[in-house]
Structures are given as structure tokens and as C-alpha cells.
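Protein 1 of 2
SEQ + STRUCT:
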Amino acid sequence: MLIPTTIGLSYDKVIAAIESCNTKEQLIGAKKMLNNFKTLYGVVGFPKAYSYSLDKVLNDKYIELTCRLK
């Protein structure tokens, strides 16, 4: 059984925040949350895979919202 870590829980929260966005304004708030995550965990040297993964989820959600709102 894996023990949840602080970084893992924070990562999951950022993913959940991004995926729950329904407007571009909400997505801007989620992007601020993502930047705070990177700033906080960048100091301790978190794996770059987290950063790439979060950026991809944010970008995919932006594309989804843009296509839906047209």
C-alpha cells in the first residue's frame, strides 16, 4: 500500500481544480494554483514529470474550453 505524500496530495488537488473548470476565469484561477505548486515544490526539487504533466492537463483543458465556447 502506498502512503500518500504531501506533494502527491497537492498534485491531485491541482489536477482536480483544473479538471473542474467550466469557464476561462476558473481556468485562470487554476493556473495560479499550478504556478503556486511549482513555486512551492520547486524549492525542494520536485520531479519535472509533475510539472510537464500539470502543464499538459492545463493546456488540454484550455483547448477543450476554447472549442466548447465557440
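Protein 2 of 2
SEQ + STRUCT:
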Amino acid sequence: MYLSSTTSLIAFVIGTISSLYLLFNGSTNKNDKIFGIITLTFSIIQLFDVILRNNTECNMTNHIFSLLIIIVLYFQGILSCMTYYKINTENNFFNNDSVNSYYILYTLFTAYLLFWLNKSNVCSNVSEATNILKYGAYNKLKDNYILLIMHIFFVGLLGLILITEVYNKNYETIINNKFKYSFFPIVAAVSFIYVMIKEVEILKDLDISKEIDNISNNISERKMPLDNPVDNPINPIKLLDYSGSFVSVASFLATFIGPITMLRI
């Protein structure tokens, strides 16, 4: 898989066409609207990808579109949930107060996150080694893991809410559309593996058995499992440094949920 302006443009076109079909087809299959919104937002991110790949200088255009990624993901969560609960008004697992709390907290957090990010020069760039676009917002969030983890939590909570509702109300829908409902976990797994292989250079020369022995010895001696955890390459928290690359790869692959939904698989 080789990501470029061309592949992002192709994904944008395919995603936009399929999302518009799903949104207009929502009059006959209402739940298509939800996948139409999700596909459209990922398609918009692919358009930003094209713009940022062709404007890698750290100027105002790069800064604005680097921040817009956060805004698009915010609207993806809010609009998808609102659409679902507008269509499905009865017998929901989460009550209105719970969902409204999600809206309010996510909105307040996103507003603060944008304020925090906008205080510095946010700049997206393309990796020369892998050609993966590293979104500037996530590059900056390396300086504040708490904000990054909270952002990931709110984005992930969208998927948890929707899949819980579908599972609770109509399990047969998941069984009849196995590939569609398993597509996002597949995208997450493939993106994670791809980024780890392509981006995390230090893991390639890592002696795993030696690190495991060190952890075992430290535990037996009642020490911290990891020596120098801040800089240790196998510290799980350090993987958050690659979240910008992960979002780039995952958003590209996730765009194809539109055609998959259209094919009813």
C-alpha cells in the first residue's frame, strides 16, 4: 500500500459518491444515512490529505487544514449519533441524558483542544521514508498525552455507542452484514500493523526476548517493569506518538465503508 495525493484523491471521489448515494437512499433504508455521514467525513479528510500533501510548508493554510481534521472527526461523532437517535427513537440502550452528556462533554473538550492547539504553529508533513502524511494536530499532541488520550476516548466512544445500540436492538443486522460491521476493527488492525512496520524503526532492531527478561527481572526485584519508561521503546504510551500516521492510514481505508455498505455485505 502506497499513499499519495493520487490515492487520496481516488478515495475522496469514491467516498463522496458512495456517501451521497447512501444519504439520498436513506429515505428507503434509514440507517444508510449514518454510514453516509461516516463515509462523507472520512472522504473530507481525504480531500484535506490532498491539500496538505501539496502544501507541506508550515504556513497558515497548512495550520488551518491540520486543525480541521479534529473538527471533522468531532462532527462525525456528533452527527452520526444524532442521526441514529432521530431514526431510532424507542427501546435504546442509552437514554437521552447519557447521549446528551456525550454531546456536551465532547463539544466542550473539542473547543478546549482547538484552543490549545491553535496557540502554537501546527504543521502537517509527509514522511520521506514512508510517504505517510503526519497530521500536525497529532504531532503537537505528543506534548500532551492526556489531551490525546481524551480525544481518542471521545472518538472511540462514538463507535461503542452505535455498535451497542445495533447489537442490543437488532443483532441479526450484524450477522447479515458481517463484513460491514467488522470493517472498522479490520481497518484499525491493518492500520496499526502497517504503521508499526513502516514507521517504528526502533522496533525493527529490538531484542524482544531481552526486553522480556528485563521486565521479568524488574518485577521479581519489585522495581518498575520498564527501565527508564519515558524513553523505553516498548513503553505502550510511546505508540501514541504515531497517532497522526495511524489516523492518516485509517481514514484512507475507512473511506471504503461507503461502497461496502452499498454492496450490502
